[in-house]
Write a structure and sequence with these properties.
alpha/beta; 3 domains; 16 helices; LCCL; signal; neurogenesis; Vitrin
């Protein structure tokens, strides 16, 4: 009996000791967890004048302050910027930020020749013949994830050769700390990494405050951008095939009817396309939208900048299932995909390739028309299309011709079997890369030479003349103006004529608007016929062959000379003429001057102050006429 009591007492003591040790261990574990808990992420703020070349990291996230739109912060290039540029100025120019500042992701790429200047978002970038290093700015990768902490590591600063407000003679550095190798490492320094190498050691850095210096002793654990926004290859960075510079979107069929095996064949087709294309910032860029019941972007144009990373991303795509709503996918693409934030470059044609199993389960005509009018070249690949017996089930008869950019056969490919899809890679890419034949890149906004012929006679007066110039400016603002897009010229006339500026004189919208504002009032008689002849000879004779020629004539009275023969000559030369009369203008003359039908090309307003009301109507008629052209 006594022995039993002793045994029970001993068991109780052991259990008590075990519980104490267990509680102590849990408490210690909580303390350890607290000790290694990662501090809150911080992003360093840089000044507006910091150049990308002063930061040695191949990829980094920083915060720009407000006010970097100032022209004193120089930017060189368009879309791809020379590293001599202001980081924050380039972010505003590219449309990633506005003048209020914010976080951005910067990726270094190889240097190049021929950085092109342009005006965008209030920033005028400059041209540069060549530079040793470039960078691309993104606003989508500022969300970052953290690598799990490694116990025993300490933070060491990565020194950036970044001058922030110091004199040029003073070597000032900003530190972006990063973790050192673990205590068990056999080396005290990191191995040099090639540009573009995706590495935890190189990419994992922790920002200090903007005021931290090179001897900063406190560093927070670091981060890298999200993986799908920064998949960099170990190979040297390619600029891409400049002979196939297109912004390309594939709309792939993820419907349930396609099945898993054929969906894998479709993915392999995309991988073959990615392999055949030399993807890069100076060549083709590619994104993918998958559709079923509803569409979703798998990745956009900015996400992957080389073919190998693109193939890796394609392999990870999983099937959505549902119906085959291609029309809904085309509408989604037009509204969302080809935006500057998603990598649309503006200088490259927009191309969409829609792959459909059999036929769409919704209508594609209206979404496709909207896409065409937005400048998107739609190609269709129909795999295992409807047989004669199946055509009764097709939602929209003749959907193919209603969808593609042109109905001449160039934009459609029919594949008899999914197992033959791979044979269309080269025929498709030959067409997609033939940018001269991408007819839908031309829209009413970017394909015209517009010549304004303005009445500067004495009856107009100085104040009303300024109203006319504002009318001209308001119409010009609606168009995409550049050396290769829409161009603007202005002629003023009285008894005589004067070329205020020609099509080649100004190639940016801001320069055009400033030139219009500088036009001075002339005063004199009204010789409209002579003015039309002068505009044909001095302005439209220098129009490009691939441009629509539009003349917009504005007058406030009857002409002293005959307008019929000059108007006929203009029409015969293919100049589409709009006649706008004010106050005392003769409506019979306006109808003679205007292109047929006169009801669409001539307008009359009773007084100058009401002229602005016709701006939307004139622009609408210009675009309606363009979009009604035959699609064969």
């Amino acid at each position: 009996m006594f022995m039993g009591i002793v045994v029970l007492t001993m068991k109780a003591s052991v259990i008590e000791m075990f519980l104490v040790l267990l509680a102590t261990g849990i408490h210690s574990n909580k303390d350890m967890t607290k000790k290694i808990k990662r501090p809150k992420l911080a992003v360093p703020q840089i000044n507006c004048d910091v150049k990308a070349g002063k930061i040695i990291n191949p990829e980094f996230v920083v915060k720009c302050p407000a006010g970097c739109q100032d022209p004193k912060y120089h930017v060189y290039g368009t879309d791809i910027y020379a590293s001599y540029s202001s980081v924050c100025g380039a972010a505003i120019h590219s449309g990633v930020l506005d003048n209020s500042g914010g976080k951005i992701l910067v990726r270094k790429v190889a240097g190049q020749s021929g950085y092109k200047g342009s005006y965008s978002n209030g920033v005028q970038s400059l041209s540069l013949p060549r530079w040793r290093e470039s960078f691309i700015v993104s606003g989508e990768a500022t969300k970052a994830y953290q690598k799990p902490p490694v116990p025993g590591t300490t933070a060491q600063p990565v020194t950036l050769m970044q001058v922030t407000g110091a004199p040029a003679t003073e070597a000032t550095h900003t530190s972006l700390p990063k973790p050192s190798p673990s205590t068990g490492s056999t080396t005290s320094s990191l191995r040099p990494q090639p540009m573009g190498h995706r590495s935890w050691e190189l990419g994992r850095w922790s920002p200090s405050s903007p005021t931290s210096s090179h001897n900063s002793s406190h560093a927070s654990p670091g981060f890298v951008p999200k993986e799908e926004l920064s998949t960099q290859s170990l190979d040297p960075v390619s600029q891409g095939d400049a002979n196939c510079k297109v912004d390309l979107s594939f709309l792939i069929d993820g419907s349930s009817s396609i099945g898993k095996r054929r969906f894998r064949i479709q993915k392999q087709f995309l991988a073959d396309v990615a392999q055949a294309l030399d993807i890069g910032p100076g060549g083709p860029l590619m994104g993918v939208i998958q559709y079923g019941d509803n569409p979703a972007a798998q990745f956009n144009l900015r996400t992957h900048m080389n073919s190998q990373d693109l193939k890796t991303a394609i392999e990870k795509i999983t099937q959505r299932g549902g119906l085959s709503n291609a029309g809904r996918a085309i509408s989604y693409m037009t509204k969302n995909f080809f935006s500057k934030a998603n990598g649309n470059r503006g200088s490259a044609p927009n191309v969409a390739v829609v792959i459909v199993d059999g036929w769409p389960t919704d209508k594609v005509e209206e979404p496709s028309r909207f896409a065409r009018e937005s400048g998107i070249n739609i190609f269709f690949i129909t795999v295992e299309g409807a047989t004669e017996n199946e055509k009764q089930y097709v939602t929209e008869p003749n959907f193919l011709n209603k969808a593609v950019c042109r109905t001449n056969g160039f934009y459609s490919l029919s594949v008899q079997s999914w197992f033959s899809l791979h044979k269309t890679v080269q025929p498709l890419l030959k067409r997609v890369c033939d940018t001269d034949r991408l007819a839908c890149s031309k829209t009413c906004w970017n394909s015209a030479d517009i010549g304004f012929v303005i009445d500067g006679s004495s009856s107009v007066g100085t104040g009303n003349f300024r109203t006319v110039l504002q009318f001209v400016a308001n119409i010009s603002k609606a168009f995409e103006i550049s050396e290769t897009d829409t161009r603007i010229g202005v002629v003023q006339y009285t008894y005589e004529q004067r070329l205020e500026f020609g099509f080649d004189d100004y190639t940016t919208k801001s320069d055009i608007l400033n030139a219009i504002n500088r036009v001075g009032y002339w005063s004199g008689g009204t010789s409209t016929g002579a003015a039309i002849n002068y505009a044909l000879e001095q302005l439209f004779k220098k129009s490009k062959p691939n441009k629509r020629k539009l003349m917009i004539l504005i007058t406030d009275g009857r002409s002293y000379d005959d307008v019929r023969i000059p108007a006929m000559v203009a029409h015969h030369k293919g100049v589409i003429t709009y006649a706008i009369g004010i106050a005392w203008a003769a409506q019979d003359e306006l109808e003679v001057i205007a292109t047929h039908p006169a009801s669409d090309h001539s307008f009359f307003v009773d007084e100058f102050d009401n002229l602005h009301r016709f701006v939307p109507k004139v622009i609408q008629n210009i675009c309606t006429e363009f979009n009604s052209q035959p699609r064969n």
